[in-house]
Write a structure and sequence with these properties.
The protein has about 100 residues and is α+β, with helices and mostly antiparallel strands. The protein has one domain: RRM (RNA recognition motif) domain (Alpha-Beta Plaits). Helix content is about 25%, strand content about 40%. The chain contains two helices and six strands; from the N terminus they run βαβαββββ. The chain has helices spanning about 10-20, 35-45; strands at about 5, 20-25, 50-55, 60-65, 70-75, 75-85. The strands form two sheets. It has a four-stranded antiparallel sheet with strand order 1-2-6-3. A two-stranded antiparallel ribbon has the order 4-5. One of the early assembly proteins it binds 23S rRNA. One of the proteins that surrounds the polypeptide exit tunnel on the outside of the ribosome. Forms the main docking site for trigger factor binding to the ribosome.
Length: about 100
Amino acid sequence: MEILKKPILTEKASALTEKSNRFTFKVDHKANKLQIKQAIEKMYGVNIVAINTMVVDGKAKSRYTKAGFVSGRSPKYKKAVVTLKAGETIDYYANI
């Protein structure tokens, strides 16, 4: 099971990083806070102070096509907001 799927690089997440040293990741739906903490500390070599997790509901999507009106949902996902120790940072692009 791959716990960390990808970092979330939105304007809101970037503002959170600049303001309070918090980083946001999309994680596996079955992962708990301890597993997320171990995965991030192993991958990035940082010390984590706190982790907040939440399940984000998928948005309703609809469009009109030649076949008619099509509606559905984007999938839900689990998000983890990680607070790091003061002075530490995560470089998302170091592992590429």
